[in-house]
Amino acid sequence: MNEFSHESTSPELIHLLGHEERTPAHTHSRGHLVYPASGVLSLVTIDGSWIAPSNRVVWVPAGFEHQHRAHGATDMRVVFLPADMAEALIPRPAVLATTPLAREALLALTGPRKRTRESTDRLRFVAIDELTATGEQPLHLPEPRDDRLLAVTRLVEQDLSIPASLADLGRQVGASERTLTRLFQQETGMTFRQWRAELRVHRALLLLADGMSVYDTAAECGWANPGSFITVFTSLVGMTPGRYQHSVTSM
Question: Where would I find the HTH araC/xylS-type domain in this sequence (predicted)?
Fold first, then answer.
């Protein structure tokens, strides 16, 4: 049986994933925290994708079918939570900002030292307290369901360097700008500009992890100048592109 198709009885797991390695789609009966101690992880579900660099933690509630994808060599740590602890977190997948204390708790939980149940639970509570204090982070890209909206998102994803307007994209898929504006808000909870900015940052995280320069990443992802890119990236990721790139390539 594939190791991702069942749940270990251990409260923690370590998986070393190669660049572009994917796990099969799977579910777990317990909610779990997924932390990329190094590298970058994508979490993919039918509702969209979440992306987490090493200063973020992915929360996956029990029963959600999902896949992981590694960007760069990735050290993935998994900490399962008992149901009573999981209740402290939101009932849907999310990206949470980590803190130095949460990071150390997660690393300790997935380290080689054998711990008592009491010691394990104390560390779990520390991680939960820290992660719930920082709150959900805007690194989720919802997956639309409407065929017209899906067609638009695919066109944008094909080449982010082309700043096509929503009206232009609508003409290509046979939908009005007004209709698409309404659908974006209904199905993603974002405006088209917000959704595209989120997509650009997702793509930038991957390109920077692959070693592309900040200047070239900005151009590849459709920003008119590096300054605008740095501002948007920093607001969503919590660090500058240069600092982020150093953090994922120096490990």
Answer: 150-247
State pLDDT tens for residues 225-249: 899 999 999 988 878 999 888 876 6
- Side chain identity at residue 47, one-letter code: D
pTM of the model: 0.75
**Whole-angstrom distance, CA of residue 125 vs CA of residue 115:** 15
On whether the CB atoms of residues 96 and 56 are closer than 8 A, the answer is yes
Q: Which CATH class is domain 12-140?
A: mainly beta
End-to-end CA distance of the chain: 31
Where, residue-wise, is CATH 2.60.120.810 in the chain? 12-140
- For residue 142, the SS3 value is strand
Q: List the structure tokens of 219.
A: 């151009």
Tokens at 88, concatenated: 């402290």
Count, in order, helices (H) and strands (E) of the chain.
10, 7
